[in-house]
Amino acid sequence: MTANTQDLRNTLEAQNFQDEQSLNKENRKTLHKMMKYVRTFPLKSIEIEQIRRDLTGMAIEAQQRGTSLQAMLGEKPRKFCDEIIYSIGGIKAPGGRKLLHIAGCYYQIIGAMSIVCDLISIFALLIIAAGSLLNTGEPDLRIMDLLSVFWSLAIAIFHYTAGKRAYQYANDITKTKFALRWGIGVFVFDFIVNLSFFIETATTPSLPLSLILLSGMLSILFLIFPILYVVGAYRNRPHSGTP
Fold it and tell me: Which of 83, 105, 163, 230 has the highest local Cβ count within 10 Å?
């Protein structure tokens, strides 16, 4: 950054800070949320301050008209930010955010549900062990059952964390590599688990062919969300240029 550019950036930053002080709480909150979103893009600092300058000017104008910045935009703040970012920095909003949000929502839901169920199972097994200790003097620990539940709990925590990461990285294209690593990790893990489930089902003696086919269909179906995760992370890469 040259000296002139640095001076211009400092001037814009000072003007923006001063003008923000005249905003009411609602408009300032909207402005801060929009700027937080803008900063997730790989823009130069002076470009960020220029966008901040434009948005601050709009907020002041909205306030003078007796309305809010969000109402004045006429569309969702993030969509407006996407347009202004492209006009200034030539950067298009990545197309994988919705896919990451879907995958993130799915993994957080199944992860949270599984965690609750596993904790209840652990509590139930401990109650059984305590009851056995009182009745017979020896605890019925059911070690294999406990190990199975703890393994299930570890999987649930992994899925829930993967879902949280998908949501976190979806709104920050600088984290694309991390999102892609998590997506690949989830896909590989779920593929192995589903393949193991299918093989176990298919090799079960006297099992009807219809159940084996159903098992295969379910195994394929459950791979949709890790695929969405990987594709969403890949498409969430920053890119520029005309559409």
Answer: 163
Amino acid identity, residue 91? I
What is the spatial distance between Cα 83 and Cα 58, in angstroms, rounded to a whole number? 15
Q: Are residues 103 and 216 in the same domain?
A: yes
**CA nearest 81: which of 54, 107, 106?**
54
Q: What residues make up the domain containing 73?
A: 3-92
Report yes or no: 236 and 100 within 8 Å, Cβ to Cβ.
yes
**104 and 56 both lie in a single domain:** no
- Mean pLDDT value across residues 210-220: 82
| pTM for the full predicted model | 0.64
CA–CA distance, 20 with 33 (Å, rounded to integer): 13
Confidence bin at 213 (pLDDT 50/70/90):
confident
Q: Which of 155, 177, 149 is nearest to 234 (CA)?
A: 177
